[in-house]
Amino acid sequence: MAILDPVIPRVLATRIIPRVDASLAAAYGFDGARLPSLALITCDLDDALYAALDEATKQAPVEVVYARSFYAGSSHASGPTSGEILGVLAGADPEDARRGLSACVTCLEREAHFYTANADGSHTFFPHVISSLGRYLSREAGLAVGEPMAYLIATPLEAVYGIDAALKAAEVRLVKSFPPPTETNFAGAYLTGSLEACEAAAQAFAAAVVEIAAQPRRP
Q1: Is the pLDDT of residue 219 over 80?
Q2: Which of 17, 143, 203, 204 could link 169 by a cystine bridge, Cβ 3.0 to 4.6 Å?
């Protein structure tokens, strides 16, 4: 591998539930009568899947009814299909759920990638820009559907240093912070501004993370 090589997420398991049991839907906090058809997906990179679930809401009439990271990350997964996140999309019928799942998988394959910060690929980060938010991440970030957002995630020290660099590099504002420790012991933030500003912020974030990977101990 080389520095800034993409790390493409691995989809580990998928299933469609055509009509979910009403009591199970209630236990997970959504209306199974209105959205009875589910698409379930696990992935080895949580932030990539969060972004892909948001993309699904733009491509299909589905809602994200569950998305949670697992403790300690995919290196310590509970089983071979666990990864580090479970996402659940819900729609009015099985075809809607399948369309949402397909959009989610396509986004993971083509867009929502982590990147390497060093040559052996042991140090990765997520400098992702979403040009137009869908219904899921707009709600999570407190932004309007269609706004751009920089979704910036790295290991703890790199995240703090990199977010500071991103905020100083462009006319962006921090709308949600993920201080360490998180479930996977990464950290980061959502930033917003114009699309150009979000892209500049992501580039500054990436440069800061790569700098630390190359020279970790520096005053």
Answers
A1: no
A2: 204
Q: Does domain 8-112 have CATH number 3.30.70.1710?
A: yes
Rounded Cα distance between 217 and 219, Å, is 7
The residue to which tokens 């959205």 are assigned:
35
- Give me the architecture of the 117-214 domain, per CATH: 2-Layer Sandwich (3.30)
CA angle 155, 156, 157 (to 5 degrees): 105
Give the residue among 3, 5, 75 at the shortest CA–CA distance from 45.
75
Q: Region 158-173: what's the mean pLDDT?
A: 98
Task: List, for residues 71-111, the tens digit of each pLDDT value.
Answer: 999 989 999 999 999 999 999 999 999 999 999 999 999 99
pLDDT at position 36 is 98
Identify residue 219 by its one-letter amino acid code: P
Q: What is the pLDDT of residues 138-158, one digit of tens each?
A: 999 999 999 999 999 999 999
Domain range summary for the chain, segments of one domain joined by +: 8-112, 117-214
Spatial distance between the Cα atoms of 12 and 141, rounded to a whole number of angstroms: 27
Measure the CA–CA gap between 158 and 161, rounded to whole angstroms: 5
